[in-house]
Write a structure and sequence with these properties.
Strand content: under 5%
Largest sheet: none
Radius of gyration: 17 Å
Order of helices and strands: HHH
Structural class: mainly alpha
Number of domains: 1
């Protein structure tokens, strides 16, 4: 139900840590490549818009659910 607060705790294996670290590095490189195509002004505008998305009412609702 909506108020069910049961949780499951997970832990990564050593191989999982290696995999996630590698995936994060590749993802970060892609983001840097995408951002490098934008001017400083455009990067600032994008950051502002992304911050608005993650702090808006939909994000707040998602945080309340978890």
């Amino acid at each position: 139900a909506d108020r069910d607060r049961r949780a499951v705790q997970l832990a990564l294996t050593d191989a999982g840590h290696v995999a996630i670290t590698s995936a994060f590095a590749a993802h970060n490189e892609r983001e840097q490549a995408w951002a490098s195509t934008l001017s400083r002004s455009e990067q600032g505008a994008l950051i502002g818009l992304l911050e608005k998305l993650v702090t808006g009412p939909v994000a707040a609702e998602a945080k309340r659910r978890f």
